[in-house]
Amino acid sequence: MLFSIKNKERRFNAATEMSALVNDEMQRDSAFHPNLGGVTKGGMSNHYPMTIMSLQGLGATDNEIKAFRSSWPRYRARIEEDLHLRDTGVVTEENWTEYLGKAEYLADFQRLFFEGQEAANDQTAYLMGVLEKLQYALPMGLFHPVIRLSFAIMHGDKGLIADALAYWAIRFEDMYKRMLPPRIDMSAQSITAEDQWLKVHAAKPEITRFGGSLQICEMLCSDTVLHDISVADEFFITEENIELKMREIGDRAIGLYLYEPALTTLHAVTSFQALADITKRVLAEGNGYRPLLAELWQRYWIWLTGLYIEKGYPKTLPTLDEDALAYVNAIDWADIASGIRKVPEVHAIKMVFSCKWLFEELDENPLFKASAINVLADHTHVKPVKLS
Predict the structure, then answer these.
(1) What would you give as a GO molecular function for this chain, any one (predicted)?
(2) pLDDT digits (tens, 9 = 90+) for 342-377
(3) Are residues 110 and 210 both part of a single domain?
(4) How far is CA 202 from CA 208, 258, 309, 316, 339, in A?
């Protein structure tokens, strides 16, 4: 539901390739606040629509989606009826950046971004114009806003896209604190992401901050030294090498997850997949937004390198020996998808969806498949992949 002074209801455009049940669940969910109970900054309420979309992408039947729905704890709060949040009309196209980070204007942002899309002749241009302003908060909430945006774009309804952008807007906090540094040597060729992490390992950086993994990674995003070594020295992401660097970064993200499976490393993979999906869709429309896409990837890489440091900057990440690779290759994605659809755990479902998408749409890296198998093994009797 989009709350507006002008319109109490918005038009919902159902995705033709999705079942009526999935479309109905996505439309209904729009009436609920994306944060847990509408009070905390926890994004668990976001997991419901994202899991429905993941199940759909994994080939779930309506009965399987209903089974998940019946197991989902109902802690969601309705934006208008429960929380009394209404569109004030205060936030406009001219001043919206002044209200970023203010959760009380959620309904205003929903209206603003919906009407912005309605008025735009070029939907990609409008979206990228908004992301240019929101990019400084890319990692907020373990990337849940960008993950939600990816699913909304995948569905195609402008209201769902507006909801995702509005969630990003109310969770906004400048994580980087400055413009990213330029490349030191414009004529040099970038080293690989793997070689860059080997340099970080050799430097053995000390973390002088204390807190949980998520908190430390958020603090490291503004570290100027990390900025320099991540995107300006010998490793850099440019408009010309986005596709290559995406594959290199994906290999680092999935390797770090296998090194230490945790919520932070899991979201490193699912957010990587979301940003890769958005990137592929934007590039399909042309090359005009490559500079901004490169900047988004620079910001993701800074966060991921911070996570690598927080995890102890291991010299090597897990690999597959010949026997493990044969085991991975022998298992069909259809069987992995069928198995995880029966597991009522949101992160497991989403992780398998992301790994399957990445394997099929970006890079047939066997580590993506191995990770999906191991996620399934955590919840079933499937044998896990032995890592080297």
Answers:
(1) oxidoreductase activity
(2) 999 999 999 999 999 999 999 999 999 999 999 999
(3) no
(4) 18, 21, 12, 12, 41
Could you tell me the maximum CA-CA distance found in the chain, to the nearest angstrom?
A: 63
345 Rama sector, left if φ>0, alpha if ψ -120 to 50, beta otherwise: beta
Same domain for 263 and 163: no
197 & 277 share domain:
yes
How many other CB atoms sit within 10 Å of the CB of residue 357? 21
What is the spatial distance between Cα 252 and Cα 264, in angstroms, rounded to a whole number? 14
Residues 162 and 64 grouped into a single domain: yes
The reply to whether 134 and 37 lie within a common domain is yes
Give 198-254 pLDDT, tens digit per residue.
Answer: 999 999 888 777 788 888 998 999 999 899 888 878 999 999 999 999 999 999 999
* Domain match, 209 and 339 both: no
Domain assignment of residue 81, yes or no: yes
Report yes or no: 168 and 149 within 8 Å, Cβ to Cβ.
yes
Tell whether 102 and 151 lie within a shared domain. Answer: yes
The C-alpha atoms of residue 260 and residue 210 are separated, in whole angstroms, by 19
**Total structural domains within the chain:** 3
From residue 330, alpha-carbon distances to 59, 182, 231, 323, 370 in Å are: 20, 46, 39, 11, 11
DSSP string, 192-204: PHHHHHHHHHHH-
Domain hosting 218: range is 193-310
Asked whether residue 315 is assigned to any structural domain, the reply reads no
